Amino acid sequence: MSGRVAGKKALVTGAAQGLGAATARLMAREGAQLLLTDLNQSGVESVAAEINATHGAGTAWAMRHDVTSEADWIAMIDHAREMMGGLSVLVNNAGIAITGSVEDLSLDEWRRGMAVNGESVFLGCKHALPLLRENQPGSIVNLSSIAGLIAAHNMANYNASKAAVWLLSKSVALHCARSGWDIRCNSLHPTFIHTPILDEIIGDRDEAVVLGKLARQIPLGRVGEPDDVAYAVLYLASDESRFMTGAEVKLDGGISAM
Questions:
Q1: Cα-trace Rg, the chain
Q2: Global pTM value
Q3: Which of 61, 73, 158, 192 is catalytic?
Q4: Is residue 236 part of a domain?
């Protein structure tokens, strides 16, 4: 099968690396046009340039984007209209991992994690919906985490912020359905994926040792790869998932089955 998202116009946040970059490459290969955003402007421009070199000029655009800024979100939606002529898919991927127990975290750390992981998704959904309504069928894919469903003693902020994404996604899905719009909203819940966000967990420890310990927590016996998540995003962005909304997709190697 090819062209699974042909004609789709997608905005992907956090697209300079990791899951966002993998998602962008896969969606471009399957026919989508893409507006890629990230705080790391040079990084996201590099990903867009790579995609355009492979799939042709005008496949991808790149913009610097602070996902915690409402003004930036309004600007990104305007750019989507100007550059791609609309928007049919929003992938809220940008996120950070702040570790620490409820006693370890400062209020500033708490607010930063909630802003990047939670408020950004609220802002993206809120400001994208008017343009998505003009380009139905539409799909919103929100990156949560298995940590939004299963807690840990030292992940207070990450647990809380990703749980917020989980239930916000359901609320958005029901709002769209009740309004009669052909716009779906679903959340994705990966476990440990081999991306730069794991650097926060690895810290100054030996990477191979830490990855080995993480893999032993997963029934399938390995840490996930970015494409493991990108293919799930592709499905939710495509019309193959038109009867799926308000759902959570667990990409956890079996952790939640235990």
A1: 17
A2: 0.96
A3: 158
A4: yes
**Alpha helical stretches, state H, 115-237:** 120-133, 156-178, 199-202, 207-216, 226-237
Q: CATH number of the domain at 98, please.
A: 3.40.50.720
pLDDT in tens, the chain (258 residues): 589 999 999 999 999 999 999 999 999 999 999 999 999 999 999 999 999 999 999 999 999 999 999 999 999 999 999 999 999 999 999 999 999 999 999 999 999 999 999 999 999 999 999 999 999 999 999 999 999 999 999 999 999 999 999 999 999 999 999 999 999 999 999 999 999 888 767 888 888 898 999 999 999 999 999 999 999 999 999 999 999 999 999 999 999 999
Is 235 catalytic? The answer is no
Backbone dihedral region of 194: left (phi > 0), alpha (psi from -120 to 50 degrees) or beta? beta
